[in-house]
Design goal:
By secondary structure, the chain is α+β, with helices and mostly antiparallel strands. The chain contains four helices and seven strands, in the order βααβββαβαββ.
Amino acid sequence: MLIAREFTINDQQEIKEFIDEINNTDQNFEGLNIIKKANDYDLFLKELLINKYLGRINPPNIHQTTFGVFEDNKLIGGFNLRHELTEHTINHGGHIGYLIRPSKRNKGYGTKLLNLALKEAKKINITKVLITCNINNKASEKVILNNGGIYENDYYEEIENETYKRYWIKI
């Protein structure tokens, strides 16, 4: 059974193994970029708290809560739940950014993880969720569609020279 919960001091080893796996297979990942800061675990946990509590009153921090998704205490993936959209996240990032451990991809975990993220969004009274994905990320697009995503449009990000698809999901 998958569970979504915020990270704690006890998750340090799981996150280290998760990062090692990603670094060995997918160094250009998107969706849970804050995990890159977990090498200094105390600072990582502090950053999560800043984003959760100070982000709403201290721009440019984004008001968001970060969750790990676990199965039998093994970190499968995670997601950032952004409590509101900013000028940047309205086009790239949306309300939810997620990442699945490479060894767990293409096994249905992405669809389940996003479903858990949508349940968390509902808890904070978000009723319509924006999710974006790189135009070339067919796996992420499939995850979004499996959760009822309705395509709105493409957005070209000049700085990154990348195009992103934008989807809405009503919950």
